[in-house]
Structures are given as structure tokens and as C-alpha cells.
């Protein structure tokens, strides 16, 4: 028995585990149970609860005693007796069953809609009668007051077959091209049919007139959903007198109140697969909707997900056992799954032992497989020095990493960092001591990191409280805000006052910091002495404050100059250190081989020559024309005239470059002299 948990909801899979072949003797079965732990632990709730290949539909009789399922291959129906926990009977059919309905409280009256347009009736003894409808049927519903069967098919008509008279009645003409599903309300017997155009048509069986039309296709389109094509109706279910749930082929479930044309809730399965089944769970007000991939349970009032299940195989149908927490599914596999969720309700009477079994499992939880393994990424393996184990049996690849034995992981971690546990222990002890200190009567303590910034914030808060009016609300403090808590705890967030950016952006920070440093010393002395009462700092007269403000304004320029001078001195020291390092480094000579018949001038010339040699003659002539060393012109006779200019020697080039450099230096000197004169004229200080 497998146990899974999602959103703290325990789901017990009762059909998990291997099944034993029927042809094995009892002696061999007992021997296998002794050897294999999985076979010994499995729970076979109902004997042979499976189909030969796949199961398509599953239903429970109204008295709760019989579970009926249809499947292939060959097409058949199997009836299981819950009182005996075994199969009651099995009947083979001529063609596959699209859907079926149990008309009586037990298995004595069953109707099958088959894929070859036949409708087959079975009684308690077996096959009773067989008839045919005009089009291929897709779904049908039974109207109990009039004993009418309503069939929807691949046509615009809804066929009616009266079982009391034994004949077809006038069909209902809908506006749709095809009808997919139908249902009859159990309270007021309103008939609803879901169309291929994404609409739901509601009919009154008493007057055989249409009383309502819902356009569900437009309601499925929301801002969060992406829909390819027009959604059709694939599932339909009534709940009580006023509620109706509609499932679409694009994976949305819409909950309607019949008094409104707008849905109350639109729930998207996010898979884009048609909704196969919709069930209502009344105890917790849940809706159980399923597509071929997943079963989702969600609250019908809020739309919040309660839990979900993803079976191994595709789902064809879902059946909720009445007044219990048991759920059964028909799958694309031989086994039909049975799930039990104690949160939804108690176990049925015929398997009440499940309640005791689940309680024992909750009291003694077993460790899962992943408790003995550790998930690590490739980067973690490189840090541990175990990257060479990739591809070996010690690592099992999974998603973006690997599973490894937890014992091996702890050993490798201890070898990489042997003092990790001691550091962890010290940190835990420190945290415990801090927690106990927090419970004492605390003084105004500053944090360990960014003390000056914290003191500045405290001063600003005190000033705001003094100037703020009574009616104004208190603004939030950065020191008490959890978002900025790390800034005063983690030393990585310490403000570096010696950095160039800080000193240039805050030129007067030195004067302000001197005042704060005095306060910090006073506070630290108080904390060391552990005084119970804090002394308030003495106030200053208004004259002193005004004089300080004027001094700050006058000292602004001097402070900027000091900061600039200090930065220049630091840059000079750094340059001298770099120059010393460059002198100490020894450059190793590199040797290059020159081809025979070539003269070496420079590396640039050789590279240019190689590029020119690769080009064609026409490209080389064009390049010479651009450089001005070659000029081609037409003569009066009709021939071409080419004139060449000799390239300048290396000495001439060097001389020209020196002259250019000399001119540029003279220009810069003239500009700097003019800049200084303009500053003197304005009366600005210069350095």
C-alpha cells in the first residue's frame, strides 16, 4: 500500500503492488508472499478487481453493494460484490460500451450504449433486449418520472425512448450540430445537453421546450488561460437544484448557478486535456474533476486546491463511493485503482478495517526511500571533490542533479570541512544565548553591524517624533522592519567609509561621524557597565547650534579639498607599487622563425603582407588607389596610364609622428593655461 501526501492530505493507494497470476497454486502464492516483501504488504481489497486490457467506465449501484465496470478486450462487463469482496459475474458483449447506466437499486436492470449505435438492455439473468438509434450515440440519461431514455448523438437531435411503452417518441431538435454529453437534474428533472459548439441547452421534459441556453465557450476565455480553438462541452453534472458544473475539451471546469448566465468559478487544469468526469463531494463542499492526466479536488466556493492525484496510467472515468472517502478510477491499464482518503470520510462498511489500518500507519510512520539519500547538484559534487563519481553506481542521475547515499555525503563533507560541526554548534549556542537575552529587560542597544547608520536612524526618528503632530500616524522604522533586518546583522552589508565613492558622495561625513562616534562611545560604556537606567545626552543651546551650522557651510569647500588631496595621494602610492611590481617581474624572451628569402621589419608588416598576398590583383590595386600610391587614368589613344608613388621610409614616418605628438602637447598646454586664467577671473579655487 502506497501512501502519498499533498497539502497535508493523506492518500492511500489500495491497488498498488504486484498482482499474482490466477493459475498459480495456493502453495506457490504462499511461497511468493514469504519471499517478496511487496507482495506480503499489498492489500487486495476486492479479488481480481481488474480488466483484461483496459477499463472505460465504472459505477456503483444505489444500494452500494455492487461495483460494475466495463472494459476490453473482449468487450465485457464485470460485477463485483462488496459483501463477498469478489467478482459476482462477468458478461461478454458484441461491441465496445460507450457508457452504461444502472436503472435499479442493484444489478437487475442495466442499459448499455454501444459504439455501433445499439442500445442493449440486461436483466438479472443476462441479455434482455437490443435496439438501435439512428446516429452514433455519445451519452444518455434516464428520466425516472416518465421512464424515458434521452440519447445524445453525433446529430442535432436528442432521441427519446420510452421504456414503459417500448417505443421511440418525438425527438428534441437542438441548435447544435452535435451533442456530446447530457444530464438530468435529480431535484426538478431539468434536462441539459452539452454541444460541440461550447453551449449548454436546457429543456423541460414536461413541455419538451427549451428553457435556457448557456454559452460556456466565451466564459472559458480569461486573462490567465490560453485556448487553441473553440472549446466543446465534454462533461456535465448537476448538484442540487441550482448548481451545475460544466467541463470543456480544453481543460476548464465552470461552476454555474442556474439563475445566472455567468459562471461562479472557472477552474483550469492547466493540461489542455478534455475533462472526463466531474463529481461532487458534499461533506467538504468539494468538486472532483478529472482529465486523462490528473484528478483535482478543489473547493466549490473559493476554487482553492484541496489535493490532487496523478495516477501512473491515463484516466478514463472516476467514481466516488457514496458517503465515504473511497475513490475508484477506470484506467488505460488492466488494474482499476482504488484510493482511500480518511479526510473525505470514513471507509465503507464492507471494508471498515481500513480505518484501523490507516490509524496505525499514522501512529508509526515509515521512513520513505528518499530519507536515506541526499540530492546533490554537479556544483555540490565539485565542492565535495566527488565529481569523478559521475557515471558510477554510487550516484543515481535525477533531473538536474544526482541522488547519493547520505552516509557517503556526510563522510565527504567531514573530510572537506572537518570543523563544520563545531562552527555550527557555536552558532547555535550563540543564537540560544541571544534568544534568552531578548527576554530580559533591554536597554537601547545598537546592532553589531552599521552602528553609525543605526544611530543616525534613531536620531532622525527622535527628531520626527518631536516635530510630528499628535494626529499624524507613526512611520515604519527601518530598524524594526524585517526586510532590512539583515543589513544590521550580516557583516557583508557593512558600509565601507574608506571607499572612494563614499568619501566623494559624503564630503562632510567626517564631521558628522565625529559627533556620532562620541555618542557611540557613551553607549558602549553604558552597555559594558550594564546600567539599568540610561542617561539622556545633555542638550545644547540654540547659539551653539547656529554657530555649528555656519561652520559646516564654511568648511564645505575645505572638506572637499582634503578629500581630493587624500585620494590623489592614495593614487600616487598605488602607481608606485604597481611600478615596483612591474620592475620585479621578469619577461621571458619569445623566438619566432622567419621564412627563407624574407626580411623581418615588424610583426605588423608581416601580418599585413600575409593578408595582401591572399587577396587578388584587382583588390590589391584598389587598395593602392585608396592609399594614394597608385593612380590609373585613360589616355587619348585609348590605353591605360598608371603612376606609382614610393612609400615613405621608416625614419620619415617616425619623424612625422614625433612632430604630430609635439603639436598635440602644445595644444593641451595652451588649453590648460586658458582654463586656469578663467578660474582666476571667476574667483574659484583651483588645485
From TrEMBL:
For this chain's UniProt record, which GO biological process terms are given? Answer: maturation of SSU-rRNA from tricistronic rRNA transcript (SSU-rRNA, 5.8S rRNA, LSU-rRNA)
Q: Which Pfam families match?
A: Beta-prop_NOL10_N, NOL10_2nd, NUC153
Q: Which organism is it from?
A: Nothoprocta pentlandii
UniProt domain Nucleolar protein 10-like second: residue ranges: 369-417
| Location of the NUC153 domain | 481-507
Q: Which residues form a coiled coil?
A: 426-470
A GO cellular component entry from the record: small-subunit processome
Q: What is this protein called?
A: Nucleolar protein 10
Keywords noted in UniProt: Coiled coil, Nucleus, Repeat, WD repeat
What's the gene?
Nol10
What are the Nucleolar protein 10-like N-terminal domain coordinates in residue numbering? Answer: 1-364
